Amino acid sequence: MFWLALYRRRRMVAFLAAGMVVFEALIVAVIRAVPPTQLFAGTGPTGPDALKAFSGSTGDVSIASYPGLLGAGLVHPFWIAMQLTAIGSLTAAAVAADVESGTVELLMVRPVSRLRLLAERTTAVVAASLALNAAATLAVAGGVALSPALHHAVPLRGVLAAGLTGCAFTLCLSGPALAVSAAARHRAQVIGATITLGAVGFAVNFIAMAWHPAAPLRYLSPFHYYTPGDALAHGTLAWGPFAVLVGVGLAGITVALPLLRRRDLAP
């Protein structure tokens, strides 16, 4: 079931991974062509306050810097959309799509335990997310290694740390989406929940960073803990936020199992 889940969406995953490489390579090319000091000339040394959420940082790293611009490529709406596409499609296929189409009963006849069904489909989601994050990380690492200016400002270990943070972020979204899939009867419900988690989470973090009275709301958004800009600048992994992202993802997967065990799989 693991290989079947990936095989059915092999073209989607391949195109998304290729899109990641092209997009991140384009970001690197733009940064090399136009230095941050020129790109944000006239906005002050730290850049516009409203753009802090787009630098992939908690506020310590300015978007008007090499790490900030590279971090922006890892929290760009296009990057988010590609990740949500993979997560939404594969988590919907984990349980809800088979329930909607009635094929889940054929799977159970083999027999296949519900634990095995969830475990293998979850592994497929994680594998696809790892492939997309690896593609983006390799593209950024290649651009940094080939540019002396970027390499001086951004250590390669920071690129690796940013990639690991991206994996934790996608796990954070995948876990709750799998829980929804384990309880839902229609794939549209899972895809809607995935998009809501990503879009609302980004909006909440943006508002919290741009508007001081709403600052406490940032702790409710996964984007507060997903800080690739900080990782790129400091070359280290922030273990606290990383643990929060992984913990939320694992909690969602843990909740999915009892939901799947107790539900009626009849369409």
TrEMBL record:
The chain crosses the membrane at residues 12-34, 78-97, 118-146, 158-178, 190-211, 231-260. It comes from the Bacteria. Keywords: Membrane, Transmembrane, Transmembrane helix. Coiled coil: none annotated. It holds the Pfam family ABC2_membrane_2. This is ABC-2 type transport system permease protein. It comes from Kitasatospora nipponensis.
